[in-house]
Structure formats: C-alpha cells, structure tokens
Amino acid sequence: MNVDQSEIAKFSALAHRWWDPQSEFKPLHAINPLRLNWIKSYVDLQGKKVLDVGCGGGILAESIAQSGADTCGIDLSEKALKVAELHALEVGATLKYRSISAEALADEEPGQYDVITCMEMLEHVPDPASVVQACANLCKPGGTLFFSTLNRNPKSYLFAIIGAEYILRLLPKGTHEYAKFIKPSELVAFTRHAGLEMLGMKGMTYNPITQVYKLGEDVDVNYMIVVRK
C-alpha cells in the first residue's frame, strides 16, 4: 500500500486537536477559505459528487459539503476520521468518511466523481504519482481535480521547514520532509501522465508580520494546481 506509517502516526497523535483553530492545525484553518474560494472559482459545488483525498480531520471536506456537494472524505488515519465524523455531527454537516486509500477506492469506484481535491497530502506518501493516477481514475470524464503541495527548492526549505516549524512554530517540528517536496514541473508531469489537462496554478504566501495568507503567482513554496480529465 502507498502509505508511510510514520506519517499516519504523526497526524493520528494530533487528531484530537484538529478542530482547535489555535492548535498545530491553525494554518489549515487559516488557508481553508482561500482554498475553498479558489476551488469555487473553477466549479459550482452545488449538487456535485466530490471526493477529498487525504481529508484528515475534515476541515476542507466539511466546508465542501456545506457548499452543497455530495461529499466523501478518505484518509488512512482512523483517529483523524473519527474526529472528522464527530465534528460533522456537532455542526450538522452531511458527508461521509472512509478509511481507504485512493488507489483502493479507484478500484471500487472508477469514474464516479465530478470533483476531486487532494490538498497537502502528496508530500506525505512514498509514491505521489500513484495517488495522482488514482485520482484521475476516480474522476468522471470532464471532471475537475485540485492538488496542492510544497515546492522543492532552497526557499521552500527555509520558509516551510526552518521558518514554519522551527522559528515561527506554525507547525510541529518534523511535519514535513524536504526530500518529499514536489516541484511544479514534477506534479504537472504526474498529471499529464495520468491523462489530465492543466487548467491553472496558484501560489500561496504567508506574511509573518500580519499573519495573513494570500493567493498569488508566487509558487516558490506552497502552490495549487487545477486540472481536467
């Protein structure tokens, strides 16, 4: 299976803090509206069948469901999924969660989803290209897929690891491994190999003084791409 058990253990240990906006997951809460609005700029989520791959505690999946989509979130951390399910019950969000890999679900439900999101997950698996291919297989022809990850270069090492984990302490130490970061050219190559057509790319930056995240054209550190099957 395309999974790093140490990565699962890392996020499972923090699962109970997933919905605390002042916890280690504060950055995810901060960037969620930006990601959601960017997704909505490409697709109308109302009535769409949406899959969130690597959903964790459900921050993005839940907001997609609340935007009117028939939503499923998948992850391999049972603890994170239990937290996601509990929070959905608390706020009355209607969606389902499953503990299954993208590859296994692709065997079960090929071509079943209008929209697929896979955010901040590819840099945590041994074979990111396999996940991209699985997402392509899960998507309906004409469907839209969104991926986000971290670029691999000296600037991203400085900002995403030294800055975010050690200086600003936005994330727990050891959250990311630099060697697993993915250059945009590599991610685009994965999508092209999976038969997906590139539609757009957007970068995300963080200002440590104002503590504000913004979308823009700078893809040196965090970036997202949107592709069509």
Automatic annotation (TrEMBL):
Transmembrane segments: none annotated. PANTHER family: METHYLTRANSFERASE (PTHR43464), UBIQUINONE BIOSYNTHESIS O-METHYLTRANSFERASE, MITOCHONDRIAL (PTHR43464:SF19). It catalyses: a 3-demethylubiquinol + S-adenosyl-L-methionine = a ubiquinol + S-adenosyl-L-homocysteine + H(+); a 3-(all-trans-polyprenyl)benzene-1,2-diol + S-adenosyl-L-methionine = a 2-methoxy-6-(all-trans-polyprenyl)phenol + S-adenosyl-L-homocysteine + H(+). It comes from the Bacteria. Pfam families: Methyltransf_23. This is Ubiquinone biosynthesis O-methyltransferase. InterPro entries: SAM-dependent_MTases_sf, UbiG_MeTrfase. One of its GO terms (biological process) is methylation. S-adenosyl-L-methionine binds at residues 35, 54, 75, 119. Belongs to the methyltransferase superfamily. UbiG/COQ3 family. Its EC number is 2.1.1.222, 2.1.1.64. CDD domains: AdoMet_MTases (cd02440). The gene is ubiG. Keywords: Methyltransferase, S-adenosyl-L-methionine, Transferase, Ubiquinone, Ubiquinone biosynthesis. Pathway: Cofactor biosynthesis; ubiquinone biosynthesis. One of its GO terms (molecular function) is 2-polyprenyl-6-hydroxyphenol methylase activity. O-methyltransferase that catalyzes the 2 O-methylation steps in the ubiquinone biosynthetic pathway.
